[in-house]
Amino acid sequence: MDLIINFFHNTGFGLATYGHLIMIAVGLVFIYLGIAKHYEPLLLVPIGFGILMGNIPVFKGLGLGIYEKGSVLNYLYFGVRQGVYPPLIFLGIGAMTDFSTMLARPKLMLLGAAAQVGIFVTFLAALALGFPANEAGSIGIIGGADGPTAIFLSAKLAPHLVGPIAIAAYSYMALVPVIQPPIMYLLTTKEERLIKMSDPRPVSKREKILFPIVAFLLCCFLAPAALPLLGMLFLGNLLKECLVADRLAQTARTALIDIVTILLGVTVGASTQADVFLTCKSIGIFCLGAASFMVATAGGVLFAKLMNLFSKEKINPLLGAAGVSAVPDAARVVQLIGNKEDPTNYLLMHAMGPNISGVIGSAIAAGVLWSFLLK
Amino acid sequence: MIDISELKESGYFSDFSDSDLAELAVIGTATHWQEGEIIFQQGSPAKNFFILKKGTVLLCFPSGRSLHLKNGGHGIGWSSLVSPFRYTATGICLTDTTLIQFSGTELYSLIRMNADFGHKLMAKIARTMEERKKYRV
Amino acid sequence: MYGVDAISAANGWMITVAGISIVFSGLLVLCFFISNMEKAIKLWDKQKEKVKHAKLKPVPELVKSKKTRDDKKRATVTKVVWLTPEQVEIYNYYRWITERLGEPFSLQRLLEHAEKRGIHRPHYHLDMFLQEGLIYDAGGDKIGFHRWARDIRIELIEDESGKAAK
Predict the structure, then answer these.
(1) Of B36, B64, B70, the CB nearest to C106
(2) Phi, psi of A58 (to 5 degrees)
(3) What is the ipTM score, two decimals?
(4) Which is the most buried residue in A208, A223, B30, B42, by most CB within 10 A?
């Protein structure tokens, strides 16, 4: 009988706490949102399942938990801890992104820069709330709306916060269609939302090939700490555009990015163990993360309005919201709202420009924060 | 509904009588396609027959061969009138294109009602099929 | 420590101002570069063209650099086709793709490759090359497959307005 009781105490049922059950519920919600609501399913399903994996109560010392040295999950977590996965994901993103929308109308890139204001405002807010500088920087980067960048920076600055920051970043990225529209309506008039953009100029293949090389050199000379992310992003893009490395580009944008996404999702999910995740800090991170997204959206929209004061060709200020780099969700939201006001107004391709420059902007911002805050 | 003059101009029905053309005009519709648009896919159910009025269409056959049809007068989509009623090629617009579209079912109704018209039309279709046979192999 | 004191203690203001400035200047420099890239390429092309004119008759770069045995014994030039710089660039890409496909090539496959590689208006340009006779049907048992015409010379139109004048 004692044997059976002992065995029971060593099972998940015996070891479970309320924290585990809450986190398992969170994991199930993620899986539900991914499968039933199609909110970023490629991310939320592996992360949700990772949360389940990380919150099965296990006997410490068996070498099963993600934080136990030598465990399988711990080995996989190495890629998160050392910032290996995010640059690989950027390689895939580069290989699947056509930068021509941005090249055709370069001034829209500034909207991508303006939206990064959210990162720095949140950084200040986090400092004011008493977070140490390294943690504040990691929290601020949530406003970049870029999961891999957020994971990369927090792994470098505040590794103990990777779980909550990644979960917050991906949750808000999935909630872009909910978070952004009220701010966009609030800050724009109907006339502004009706502005139609002229057709972009055609972009030659040579421009597309030259761009990743020169952009990489310019950006990394300016912010060398952005090297791992931007280097891989632009390498991926060069592979895509140069035409002679089609096989590599194909692998980067399909198999490689899928594999890394699975590993990243599962390990980030598994890192949210109840005792690490269910803390007051996590609540603070979630609140600041939401604020960060809102400020970023507002920053982009307001900057577009500011640009309209000085430029002859008016920009639809909704495009500013696409400056947060959640690609392509933010651009889709812009299209949706523009289309609601005028069914003949198609803003999607115009919004892709600031959307993509937002990726570059947030990577530069991450590099800047890393170099300033690394102790 | 289109104008009889449009059918006459297209050239494909040049040897058809005015009464035949009047009947065709009732069931014809002018459709506009954009550069790069696919009119039909090889293997998909063939529901419509088209006459090329303006523009350029590339017919791509599964054999890898392709036929470049430009300007007016070409009949496209004969499979809508011949068994097994599946398109044998993929039709792609290379430029902005105007096609006169006829529903296969409605053409069949006309054929059923007017045998002379049916003969003439099927003779044309047979000629077109023969011309394109070498592209299918 | 909380509030403004905490921000000042952690150099928050400085980091924020420097961060925003660096992000903006990075993207501004990039924006400036991109805005001028097209002009720079055009200027480069013009210079290259001038040098070419001085040396020999203008032949598109790819055609010139990848001479085949066919080229060497090609027939005399019977027609000249005028293309804009963009059309010449796309012409070169199409030739590059067909070099991989081998002649005679399938137009369908050529279009697929062109679309996959994001070539600008692939259908329009293919039609133009066909209409101009730059691409012709191979005929015989290869009917429906196509080849590049060897007896046509490409000339470059200096600016876009030339296209309208043609």
Answers:
(1) B64
(2) -120, 155
(3) 0.84
(4) A223
Q: Which residues of A touch C18 (CB under 8 A)?
A: 368, 372
Rounded distance, CA A252 to CA A54, Å?
28
Distance from the C76 Cα atom to the nearest Cα atom in chain A, whole angstroms: 32
CB A23 within 8 A of CB A54: yes
Chain B CB contacts of C145 under 8 Å are 64-65
Closest residue on chain C to A226 (Cα): C23
C47 with C107, same domain: the answer is: no
Task: For residue C117, give its domain range.
Answer: 57-165
* Residues in chain B within 8 Å Cβ distance of C137: 68
Cβ atoms within 10 Å of C64's Cβ, excluding its own: 13
Chains that touch B (3 or more CB pairs under 8 A): C
**Could you give the domains of chain B?**
4-136 (2.60.120.10)
Q: Which tokens sit at C103?
A: 């002649």
Which of C166, C142, C143 lies closest to C156, judged by CA?
Answer: C166
Q: Are residues C25 and C96 in the same domain?
A: no
Residues 6+ apart with CB under 8 A from B82: B125, B129
Return the residue in C30, C91, C110, C124 with the most chain A beta carbons within 10 A, the one to mutate for interface testing.
C30
Burial of C16 (0-12, 13-18, 19+ CB in 10 A): buried
Calpha distance B53→C38 (Å, rounded): 38
Tokens of A289: 């993360």
Q: What is the CATH number of the domain that holds C69?
A: 1.10.10
CB B132 within 8 Å of CB C143: no
For helices A41-54 and A18-35, the axis angle rounded to 10 degrees is: 160
Q: How far is CA B30 from the centre of its chain?
A: 12
Angle at A291 between CA A285 and CA A297, to 5 degrees: 135
Assess whether chains B and A touch, using the rule of 3 or more C-beta pairs within 8 angstroms.
no
Residues C69 and C47 in one domain: no
Q: Does position C57 have pLDDT exceeding 50, yes or no?
A: no
Same domain, C15 and C88: no
What whole-number distance in Å separates Cα of residue B8 and Cα of residue A370? 73
> Could you tell me which of C100, C101, C104 has the C-alpha nearest to residue C140?
C104
Interface residue C27 vs chain A (CB under 8 A): yes
pLDDT of C115-157, one tens digit each? Answer: 877 788 889 999 989 988 889 888 888 889 999 888 888 887 7
Together in a domain, C105 and C157: yes
Q: What is the pLDDT of residues A127-183, one digit of tens each?
A: 999 999 999 999 999 988 888 999 999 999 999 899 899 989 988 888 888 899 999
Q: Where are the domains of chain A?
A: 77-373
Residue with tokens 């049922």: A13
C33 touching chain B per CB within 8 A: no
Please check whether residue C146 touches B, CB under 8 A.
yes
What are the tens digits of pLDDT across the range B38-48?
999 998 888 89
